[in-house]
Amino acid sequence: MKWYGRFRAALAAAALTALGTAAQAGPIMDQVRSRGTLICGINTGVAGFALPDARGVWQGLDVDLCRGLAIAIFNDASKVRFVPLSSSTRFTALGSGEVDVLFRTSTMTMLRDTTLGLRSLVPYFYDGHGFIVRNSLNVRQVRELNGATICLIQGTTNEQVTADYFRSVNVPFTPVVFERTDQAAIALQAGRCDAFGTDASQLAAVRSTMQRPADWTILPERFSKEPYGAYIRRGDDEWFDLIRWYTYALIEAEELGITAANAEEMRRTSNNANVRRLLGATPELGQSIKLDAAWAYNAIRAIGNYGELYERTMGERTPVGLPRGQNNLWTNGGLMYALPMR
C-alpha cells in the first residue's frame, strides 16, 4: 500500500499549494484589508457586552470579540472601528454594508438566517428571556404580572416571546416599547413600567448599573432559547469561514488550556498536535482561511481564550456577576464546544 501513502501525501501537498496561491480571500476580506480597518457593529450600551468606560473606550465581550478578529486579520487591535447600533437598525446596517460583521447580542433564529439576506454563525453566548421586577411588587412568578406594564426593546425577539407567553396563559399586559436598553432601564426605574422583559444577561447588566441594585429581582423563569452569534451578509463563503473558525478558535483554546499568558510558551514547546495547529507552529489552519499561520495565536495572546473573555466581562467577579452556567465548556457541564480544528 505504499502507493496509497504517496497518493495521500501528494493530495495534501496539492491542497496546501492551492490554498497558498489563492488569488483572493473573498470580497469582504479584500475590502477590509484594502480599507485597513474592520468595521464592527455592536450594542449601543449594555454592561458586559458593549459599554464605554470612564475614558470613553468601549469594553465588553462583544467588543473584545471584535478586537480579537481585527488582531487575527491585521495583528493590530487598533484596526477596528465600532459602530453602535440599535436592535431595530442592526440588520439593516449590516445588509447595507455599513458594517462588516455584527457582534451585537443578536439571537440566532431561523427566519433571521433565511429571510434577511444574512447568515448567523457560531453561538458564542447562550441566554434566555426573563423579567426583572421591583421587590416591592412581591411578584414571584411572571404570570402574577396580570395587567402589568412591561418595558420591551423594539426589534428584538423579546417582543414576540413576551406576547406569546402572556397570550398562552391568558393574562393581559401593556407593552411599552423603547429603541434602546438604557431608555427602558430609565423608564423602569422611574416607575413607567412594572417589569422589563429581555434576555437574562441584559437584565443582570441593567441591574448592575442601577442606583439600588438590591431593590430589584430577576425572576427565575426562562421563556426562550437565545443563543447569540455573529451575523454577516450572505454570499461570501470566505468571510463566513473566517469568523466561524475564529469563534471556534477561542473556545478551542480554552479546551486545550491555552491562555493569553501561556500561549507563547505553548507555541514554542508543546508536542500536542492540536495545540501546534491552533497556534500556528504548523501553518495549515491559517492557510485554509487565507490568514497568517499565527492568526489564532495573535488573537489569543492579546484577548485570551473564551473563558478569559467571559470572566473578564460577564463573570461573577464583575458588576454583571453571571456564573458560567450553560456558557461553560461542554466538559464542565456547559454548551460551549469547538468543532475539531484539523
From TrEMBL:
CDD domains per the UniProt record, alphabetical: PBP2_BztA
Location of the Solute-binding protein family 3/N-terminal domain: 37-266
Coiled-coil portions: none
Entry-linked InterPro entries: Bact_solute-bind_prot3, SBP_3_CS, Solute-binding_3/MltF_N
Keyword Lipid biosynthesis part of the UniProt annotation: no
Keywords from the named record: Signal, Transport
The keyword Lipid biosynthesis belongs to this UniProt entry's keyword annotation: no
Endpoints of the signal sequence: 1-25
Gene3D superfamilies registered for this protein in UniProt: Periplasmic binding protein-like II (3.40.190.10)
SMART domains: PBPb
Family per similarity comment: Belongs to the bacterial solute-binding protein 3 family.
Name of this protein: Amino acid ABC transporter substrate-binding protein
